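Translate structure to sequence.
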């Protein structure tokens, strides 16, 4: 009987397992937690979110919104879980992280074609032929033993970058007299979207954020304290290297005094209703769970020592007495050099029955990781059923992401979020930006439908 082995129970591994099992093929999913914990995970749930609780923009005039629309059409478990556990975030899709992972854990463990094994895998699973493919989806925190085995198997040294996660504060410890509830431009989910910022940047939405306003003097005192604070030590052999789209707040600050005011602390479109004026700078707080008793600091991923975080962040108006549910921290993300190793189907060039998915495959972001798992799952199901995997069209967001990972310049390769810039350009594209994005999205969804219709391995 055909079967698929998946190593790693994160977003990519769970999405792959769901796609394969939905096609009637047996899946064994190995997850090392809680047998071997990591430095950032807090539960033994599958698909636990450890960075932000935001899956970013949710409308198709934004590339990641289009990617979500495509994934929903393809029966994504991750998007179904996100839609079921979403919390207010306006034009973005944010979730209650605990309920989100609990939802996915229930669905995966209850599926009759999926067997979850809690074990640490130390070696690369051996090839058993195309009817028994293997997907490696161990994420950026792959255990050292398996990481060494993967490196030996693919014949490449790893690349890496450091990632930092944002602090979370207890809602009742926020001084509501000093903050105001508003969203940039008062925008609601149904309003046209502006170009999105980096994955860890500020999200917009009607009244869905608490805003901590700063005067010039307050900002300058905060900036001085932030740039002078002591960082936590990063234990690694090489120099620090951060993903540009999710830089620690103190790294951004060192680029110049006004960098934060044009980034995560930008006050544009956030006039304080109590004064009718725009603050000099703003720190946004986003609801982190459905109970609304936890709020995360948007764009405030950090590697400061915990004591320094408490000291510096309490200088933010409204957070003087903040109780921290979680401090920010830094961790190493590990990934392979996709362009030298992978095909568009997420199969490895040297061993067609071996596939990679998730952040270890060279993508960046929650949605992108799940999307790679979705396609890897479809490809593995096709292999197990005796078929040939078909790459998704480059005119789709999900296909463009796969093409980027497998065809980008190998030298100095860095993971990427999905952007319209990596999608195949339109011929005779409209000059107006919104019309152009809408046309790209319409073309993508039509191409996806045609690809689905031609697929020899649809879901049951």
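Result:
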């Amino acid at each position: 009987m055909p079967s698929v082995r998946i190593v790693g129970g994160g977003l990519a591994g769970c999405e792959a397992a769901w796609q394969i099992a939905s096609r009637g093929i047996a899946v064994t999913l190995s997850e090392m937690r809680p047998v071997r914990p990591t430095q950032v995970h807090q539960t033994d749930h599958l698909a636990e979110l450890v960075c932000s609780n935001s899956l970013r923009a949710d409308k198709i005039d934004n590339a990641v919104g289009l990617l979500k629309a495509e994934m929903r059409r393809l029966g994504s478990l991750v998007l179904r879980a996100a839609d079921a556990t979403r919390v207010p975030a306006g034009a973005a899709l944010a979730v209650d992280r605990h309920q989100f992972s609990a939802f996915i854990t229930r669905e995966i463990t209850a599926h009759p074609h999926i067997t979850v094994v809690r074990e640490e895998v130390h070696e690369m699973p051996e090839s058993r032929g195309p009817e028994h493919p293997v997907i490696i989806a161990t994420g950026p925190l792959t255990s050292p033993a398996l990481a060494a085995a993967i490196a030996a198997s693919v014949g490449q040294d790893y690349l890496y970058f450091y990632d930092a996660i944002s602090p979370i504060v207890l809602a009742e410890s926020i001084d509501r007299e000093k903050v105001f509830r508003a969203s940039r431009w008062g925008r609601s989910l149904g309003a046209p979207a502006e170009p999105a910022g980096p994955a860890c940047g500020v999200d917009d939405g009607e009244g869905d954020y608490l805003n901590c306003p700063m005067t010039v003097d307050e900002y300058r005192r905060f900036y001085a304290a932030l740039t002078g604070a002591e960082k936590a030590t990063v234990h690694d052999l090489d120099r620090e290297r951060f993903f540009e789209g999710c830089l620690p707040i103190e790294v951004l600050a060192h680029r110049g005094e006004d960098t934060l005011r044009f980034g995560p602390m930008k006050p544009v479109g956030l006039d304080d209703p109590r004064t009718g004026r725009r603050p000099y700078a703003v720190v946004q707080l986003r609801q982190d769970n459905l109970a609304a008793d936890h709020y995360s600091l948007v764009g405030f991923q950090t590697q400061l020592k915990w004591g320094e975080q408490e000291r510096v962040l309490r200088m933010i108006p409204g957070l003087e007495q903040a109780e921290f549910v979680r401090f920010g921290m830094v961790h190493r993300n590990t990934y392979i050099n996709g362009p030298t190793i992978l095909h568009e189907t997420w199969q490895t060039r040297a061993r067609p029955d071996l596939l990679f998915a998730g952040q270890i495959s060279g993508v960046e972001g929650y949605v992108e990781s799940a999307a790679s798992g979705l396609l890897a799952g479809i490809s593995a199901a096709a292999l197990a059923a005796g078929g040939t995997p078909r790459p998704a069209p480059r005119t789709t967001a999900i296909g463009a992401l796969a093409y980027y990972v497998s065809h980008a310049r190998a030298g100095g390769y860095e993971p990427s979020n999905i952007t319209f810039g990596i999608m195949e350009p339109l011929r005779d594209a409209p000059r107006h930006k919104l019309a152009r994005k809408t046309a790209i999205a319409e073309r993508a969804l039509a191409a996806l439908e045609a690809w689905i219709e031609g697929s020899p391995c649809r879901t049951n």
